[in-house]
Each structure stands twice: as C-alpha cells, then as structure tokens.
Amino acid sequence: MLKGTKGSGDLIKGLSATQGVVVELQDPDGNQIDIFRIGEDMSRANSYSRIPDGTGVWYYTDVTGTQNATNGTNTSGLESIIALPWITGLTQDIMFPTATDAVKVSATVRTISGTTLTSVILKWTLDGNAQSDITMANLGNTYSGTIAAQAVGAEIVYTVVATNSENGTAESSEDYTVSSTAIDYSKLVINEIDGNGKFVEIYNNASYDIPLVGITLIKNEETASNKIWWTGLDGAIIEAGKYYTIVQSGLLTPTGASEYTGASGISPKKTLKFELKTSNGTILDTFSRLIEGSSTLDADCLPDYSKTPKYSFSRCPDGIGEFKLAVPSCNAQNPSTSDDPIVTTPLTP
Questions:
Q1: Are strands 237-238 and 169-177 parallel, antiparallel or unpaired?
Q2: Contact 172, 121 (CB under 8 A)
C-alpha cells in the first residue's frame, strides 16, 4: 500500500476524493500494466475498491477504505463505478491539408482492466453538416481513421468517440480548414541555442509564413509528453525569413523573445540534443553537442569558450550555415561567418 505525503507516505502527489483521478501502474520499461481513471465529482467522498480483490469491477466503498486488507466480496448496497475509456495523443497526419490531401486521424485509446473497448468511432462534420461515421481501425492501443480530401476552404470538425463494455464513453475533438497552399515544414530549422540565456531560436527558410501549432522541440530524445521542451500553440506563426525564439519559462531575459514558455534543462556545461519535430513526429532538424568522438548524451562536457562574452551555438549564416560559436542574438541575425567551431572536451573531475 502506498500513501500520500499527508498520510506519512511516499507519493509525491496527493489524491482527492472529489477531483478527477488517473492512476497508472507501469512496469520498469514504462509499459502499462493497469490503470484507474475517474472524473471529477464534488459530491463524492468515498474510496474506490475492486470487489473481489484483483479481478472485480470498481465500486464506491467505505470512506476509510481497507488499508492492507481484503476488499471482501459483498457488493450489496454499493454503487459501481462506470469505467471510462481514456483518449490521448489525438493527431492528424497533415496539419494543414490541401484539396488533394486525405487526412489520417489517430489517437491512443485505452480502458481500465476488467473492461473492453466495444467501439471507437470517428465522427465528423463538413461545414457544420454531419457526415457518415468512420469506424477506426486499431493497432494495439492506436486507432486511426481517414477523412477523404475536401475542397479548399472546407471546415472539418472531427471527434473520436470511444465506448467500452460498461457503456462508459470518452470524446476528444479537433478541427482543420482545407488550405489552398501546401506548407513545407522542412523549411524550419533550429537556428541558435544559448545554454546561458536558456533559449532556442527557430528560423524560417521559406518565402511564406508558417504556423507553428503542433511543432515541438524535444530535448535529449525525451519523448514523454511532460518532457517535451516546447510545443507551438494555435496562433503561433513564424514569418518568412524570420525568427521565433523560446526562452525557458520563468525568465525575463533575454528580452525580445517570442515566448517565455520553454521547459528547463539547457546547460552550457553538458551534452545537449534538440530535435525539431512536426505534429506527427517527423524530424525537421537536429542539433547535437557531444563530447568529441562520443555519441553519448548526458555526460558532462565543456564548450571551448575561447572568448568573452560566453557564446551561443548559432548557424552562421542564418538558416543554412553550420553551427558555430557566436555572440548570442535572440530573435536577431546571426553572424554570416564564424571562425569558432563548436569543440567540446570532458570536464575535469
């Protein structure tokens, strides 16, 4: 049995009787073993128990629970909990489709142990008018369905609806508008990284503006959702031939950045890898700083700062050049040339 910190236990997060709760049991490799999920209910004050132990369905039970003891077998007078499916990772393979693009919608759908998914349906509307439902095909926990190509200007709203064997349902929705011009996201590159100023700058090599919604920066190949260093939100746009700079959250400098929302973890004294990815996981650009001759991340290393001030790692020139040491230039032009390559050596113990 594990307890929360208020119960002299080791859990770093508390549990509430009235708030929504998701508790997932994983093996050492991060694979799901079991999951419990329940929505918010301010009138609820009970605990939750499987009856019988280990194999039964979930019930609201005595408010004190049965710590390190059997839950019993008697369900008389108890209210069963309607298990809800869980939808995560809702994505479309083409963020801004044109009139020739069919759009593949995918999502991860799971339900708690003891229940099974009975249907996963993709419901969608075209310009506000309901269309035929699409039964989503599954590969493991990943479900997908394809919406046919539509005319330029068409407004599509789609919803994944999952139902399980207890008639519990969950929904998740997104939308898109069919564009007249395809967007080439490969025109986006990582342009500058400053371990001291704690920022990452993106550059747009295209001759047109590019929306950044769904674009991500992944640090050190960490793929869990809470390890993504930054994700572009709706409304974020990088102009043609311009910069978009993200500074670590909580900092006020350097000034002039586009956002101050990045996660933590950029160090001037450690190896570092950043990947710039599309919403469907395609890698657009990669920056790596490793100990010379090594491919190992997370080891200590020291850039060869031969001058002051301490330099950032910058493409020279913008967008197309190799990474060199240069004076930091947040949301501004990098030098066209640099004689200072990025050399790293192990730190002395």
A1: unpaired
A2: no
Residue 107 CA to its chain's centroid (Å): 13
CA 265/CA 270 separation, integer angstroms: 10
Closest C-alpha among 172, 266, 255 to residue 219 = 266
What residues are paired with 108 via a beta bridge?
Answer: 88, 142
Distance of CA 348 to the CA centre of its chain: 36
- Distance from CA of residue 91 to its chain's centroid? 11
Between β-strands 228-231 and 216-219, what pairing exists: parallel, antiparallel or unpaired? antiparallel
Query: Using the 8-state DSSP alphabet, how is residue 143 labeled?
Result: E
Q: Residue 121: what are its φ and ψ, rounded to 5°? A: -115, 140
Q: What is the DSSP string of 115-126?
A: --EEEEEEEEEE
The model's confidence at residue 259, banded by pLDDT at 50, 70 and 90, is very high
Give per-residue pLDDT as tens, 130-181: 999 999 999 988 999 999 999 999 999 999 999 999 888 999 999 999 998 8
